Amino acid sequence: MVKQQYDANLLPDMLPIYYTRHFPQKIFCRWLAYGCSPQPLSNREMSFTLADDVYLRYLSISNQKELQELLQKKCPYKLDIGAVYNTKPSVGRHNAVVLARELVFDIDLTDYDEIRTCCQEAKVCEKCWLFMVIACEIIDKTLREDFGFQCILWVFSGRRGIHCWVSDYEARILDSPGRGAIASYLCLIAGGENQSKKVHLGNENLHTSIRRSLNIIDNYFEQLLQEQDFFATSEGLNAFLKLIPDETLRSQVAKKLEKLPQSSLERWTSFVSTYEAYCRENGNAMRKLKYLTEEIKIQYCYPRLDVNVTTGFNHLLKSPFSIHPKTGKVSIVFKSSNVKNFKLDEVPTINTLLDDMSTDSSVHQNNMKEAVKTFQEVVFLCEKTEAMRKRNNANTSIEF
Amino acid sequence: MNLNIKRRSTKSLTTGSLIETYPHDLQLYKIPPIDNISLQEFESLALERLNLLRCLATATTLKNLRPYSNEWREYIITELRNKGLKYYAKLCDKSACGNTEMDLQARRKDHIAHFILRLAYCRTEELRRWFIARELELFRMRFMTMNTESVDTFFKLNNLCYLNIPDEEKNNIIHYLRESTAYQNVDNMKFYKVKFYEVLDLVKLRKVYLHGGYAYIPHKDFVSVLSAQFRVHLKQSLAVACHHLGEIEQDERLVSLLKSLHQTYTGNDYTNTKAIIPIESLDSLSVKSFPLCMRQLHEQLRMAHHLKHLGRLQYGLFLKGIGVTLEDSLRFWREEFTKIMELDKFEKQYAYNIRYNYGKEGNKKNYSPYSCLKIINSPVGAQDCSGCPYRHCDVSNLKNKLQGYGFDPQTVHDIVDITKKGHFQVACSKYFDAVHNIDLGLGINHPNQYFEESQKYLKGEIKIEPKKENNSIPKESITDIHEMDLDEIVEG
C-alpha cells in the first residue's frame, strides 16, 4: 500500500473530524481549569491560527461544550494557550492583569544549528533528536529535585522541538523575575554569534546541579560524538579549537589532532589526554582551565533554552494535541522517563489517525492513546496536588 | 519556612523619644514619619537623598564598579563625604547601634527623606523601577557592612525569628552545601531553610544549594531574603503612594518640587523624535553616526537579509528613535527580508512586529529604544547578532571587525584594551572618538544619544572642547547633571 503523503490543503476537511474524535477535549478542559484556582476556566486566554495565518487572540471557553463549538466553528490550524487573567480575556484585552500561567520551557533544534551536523533549520532526524533527549532529562531532573515541582508536562512541539509545562501552584503564580531566575539557573550557554566559547564555569566548586547535568551528558556523550561527528570536518575542528583559551595548549592539541584519523571520538580522547598532561605540568594553567572538558561538553550537549518564552508571564505557547500545520504531526504528550524511546516517525499524524487503512495506522493510533493516557495522568496529579494544597490552606487558616 | 516577621503596631512615631523611634541605623521603612518639617528641610532632604541614590547609580553604570565590591563601597562613601552628605556616610557604618544625637538625627533624616522620594518616584513604572533598584542597593550595602552584633540587634528589633536546621539534617547534605554555597568553611556555619522564591537573586546566580523547592542558606545570605521582602514591600508602597498622588498634589508648594525632582533624573528616553531620517541614508549613517552595536546589526541585515527577533527589536527601535518613520521602516525591512522570502511571509510574520514597535499593534504602547544598560544586560541567544559588541563579542572578533573598518592599530588596541577591562561604555566612547577623529570622551549611555551627539558634531553644533565635559553634553548624561547639582548645593 502506498503511504499517503500529508497535504496541508486537506486540513479544513480533516480538522473537524480530528477535533471531535481524537482531541482529548474533556481532559484538556480539566487541565486548564485546575479546579478553578485562582480563576475559572473562562479567564484563560486561548488563541487560534486559522487558514492563511489569520490570528485570533483573546478567545476563551467556559466548558467543554463551548470548546467543541468553537473548534467546529473556527476550525483552527493551530491552538495556542496563554495566561489566566483577572477577567474574561475577550473583555479585558489589553488592560487585563495576568494572575497565573504555567512555567514553560521551549527548546527548539534550530538553536542547535551551530553544533548539529546532520540537519539544519526545520529539518530533524533521529540523530539530532538525541539533543532533545538530553535536554528533557536535564530540565526534568532539575525541576523535580531542585525546585520540588511535580506536575510537569512534556509535549512534542510538532516539528523540531519540545515544550515543558510546569503546573504546580507555586510555579503558576510565580512572577516574571522569579521565572527569569529559574531560567538563569538552568542556562549555562550564553553569548551570541560573535562569541565562540559560550560556557564559563570559573574555577570554584561546580554547583550540584551542574554536576548532575554533566552526569546525564556523560551517558550520551560518546554516542553523540559518533553520530554528530562534530570534529571531523576542518570547520568543525576549528570551531572546537577556538574553545581552548590557552594558546599553547591550543596549538599542541591542533598538532596532535591533525595527525589523527577524522573520527571525533578519537580526536576527543586525544584532546583529553593532551589537556590532562598539560595541566599536570603547568599548575597555573590547571587553575585557569580547571573545567575545560566540562565546559566543552556543555557547549555541545547542554539544553539551549529560549529564555524569553520562560520569562514572559503571558507568552503564548502551542497547546498539547494541536496539529502542526506544516507536518501534520500531533503535538503529543510524552513521559520524560520514556523520552529515550521517542521515535519521530512514530508520532501520530492527522492523516494516519483519520485513515484506518494507512500502514502506520495501528502504531500511530496506539501512540495517540498512550499520549492521551500520559496527559491524563499529569492532569490527575495536578488536581490531586491542588486539592491537597487547598486542604492544607484550610487547616492552617483554622489554626489562626 | 522558619522565618517569621511580626509587624510592629502602627502607633504614632512622635510619642516616643528619638532613641525609641530610631534604635538602629538600618530601617525597613514600614511606618511613615508624621513630624512637622519646614518646606526648606523638605526640599533639602529630598535633594540630598537624590544625590545619594545617584551616587549609587554612577558607581555601577558609569564607573563600572562591581556592585557591593569594596571599591564600589569605597567610591560611594568617598563621594558622599565629598558631597557634604557625611550623615549618609555615617549610616553606612559597621556599627549601627550608636545612640549619640548625631546618629539619631541622621536616622531621622534617612527616614523622612526616603518617604519624600517615594512621592517623587511613584509616578511611572520607569521611575519606580529606578528608585526600587537604588534603594535596594543602599539597603544591601548597609546590611552587608554591618558587624555581627549590629545584625543581631537588627533582627531582634524587627522581630525576625528563625530556626537553623538541625545538625543531623545538615550533615546529610554537607557535601552539597560545600559544593553549591559560595563560601569557605561551610562546616562551621549554621544553615537555614527558606523557599527558593525568597532568594531569587541567589538562585539566579546558582549560588545556593536547592533541594525540593527549598534553598539552604547560611546566616550571611539572609540579606537576600530581607532584600526580597524589602523589594515587595517597597513595590506595594509605591503603588499605594501613586494612588494617593492626587491628594498630595493639592498642596501646590510640594507639586513643583516633587515633579521637577524626577525630571532631573530621566534624561531623554527617545520615544518621540522630531527629526525624520530617510532610509536611503542609512548605509552612510551607519558608518558615520551609528554606534558599533547598530552598525553591526545594519551590516548583518544587509548581508544576510535577515535578523533574529532580538536583533530586529534592538535595531528597529533604534531606527524609530533616530527618526525613521513607520512607513519607511516597513519599506526598509520589507526590501531586505523579501530577498530571501516571499512577500506574503514577510507581511504575515514580520510586519506585525514592526508596527508593534511603533505602537500600532497589540497593547499599542509606544516602545522606547533600548539603552546601553538594557543592551549590555540582556541575554544574547546562541546565534544572535544583537547585544553590545564590547560585551558580547570575543576579543579576537572585535579586533578583526575594527581592523576591517580601517582604524589604525593603536586605536584598535586601545578600544580592545578597555573592553578587556570590562568598561564597555568607555570603549564605545573611544569608538566615537575614533570615528569622528576627535578626543571628546563622551559618556555614552544610549545608542540614540550616541547618534544625536554624532549628528550634532557633524553639523558643527558641538565645538570641540576636550576635557570640559559639562559644556558638551547638555541633557543626556546623568553624571553631568548631578555634578552640577552638587556644585549648587555646596555653594548654597
Automatic annotation (TrEMBL), chain A:
Domain of life: Eukaryota
CDD domains: AE_Prim_S (cd04860)
GO molecular function: DNA-directed RNA polymerase activity; metal ion binding
Enzyme Commission code(s) on record: 2.7.7.-
Gene3D superfamilies from the UniProt entry: DNA primase, PRIM domain (3.90.920.10)
GO CC terms of this entry: alpha DNA polymerase:primase complex
Pfam families xref list: DNA_primase_S
GO-annotated biological processes: DNA replication, synthesis of primer
Keywords in alphabetical order: DNA replication, DNA-directed RNA polymerase, Metal-binding, Nucleotidyltransferase, Primosome, Transcription, Transferase
Family per similarity comment: Belongs to the eukaryotic-type primase small subunit family.
Protein name, entry field: DNA primase
Organism: Galleria mellonella (Greater wax moth)
Automatic annotation (TrEMBL), chain B:
Organism the protein comes from: Galleria mellonella (Greater wax moth)
Lineage: Eukaryota, Metazoa, Ecdysozoa, Arthropoda, Hexapoda
Protein name, UniProt field: DNA primase large subunit
Domain of life the protein comes from: Eukaryota
Function: DNA primase is the polymerase that synthesizes small RNA primers for the Okazaki fragments made during discontinuous DNA replication.
Sequence ranges assigned to domain DNA primase large subunit C-terminal in this UniProt record: 284-451
Cofactor(s) required for function per UniProt: [4Fe-4S] cluster
Signal peptide range: none
Family under the similarity heading: Belongs to the eukaryotic-type primase large subunit family.
The keyword 4Fe-4S is assigned to this record: yes
